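FORM 12-B: Structure-to-Sequence Request
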């Protein structure tokens, strides 16, 4: 049985969501690093943040800190589910969604 806490599709979902929110907010990894330190005292250099986001290996706390820094007012779970289902569908069809292919912005 697969360990649901090590779900690659969910990692990709979180990575895509954070990157989409960063793009919408006009925030770079450097900017996110600064905001995390200013708002919450969390020190991560931009390269570390990029690695965490791109791998989707974010704990719940780090995900929420990032979302708060990006000033996301409402975390829309159905949008996260849509992204997840698109990724799962692509994987089930044997297709790999390339990094360059972006899903539409969050509604």
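FORM 12-B RESPONSE
SEQUENCE OUT:
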């Amino acid at each position: 049985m697969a360990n649901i806490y090590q779900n690659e599709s969910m990692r990709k979902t979180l990575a895509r969501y954070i990157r989409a929110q960063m793009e919408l907010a006009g925030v770079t990894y450097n900017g996110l690093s600064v905001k995390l330190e200013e708002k919450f005292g969390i020190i991560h250099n931009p390269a570390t943040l990029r690695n965490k986001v791109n791998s989707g290996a974010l704990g719940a706390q780090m995900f929420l800190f990032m979302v708060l820094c990006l000033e996301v007012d409402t975390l829309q779970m159905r949008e996260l589910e849509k992204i997840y289902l698109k990724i799962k569908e692509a994987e089930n069809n044997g297709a790999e969604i390339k990094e360059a292919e972006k899903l539409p912005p969050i509604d």
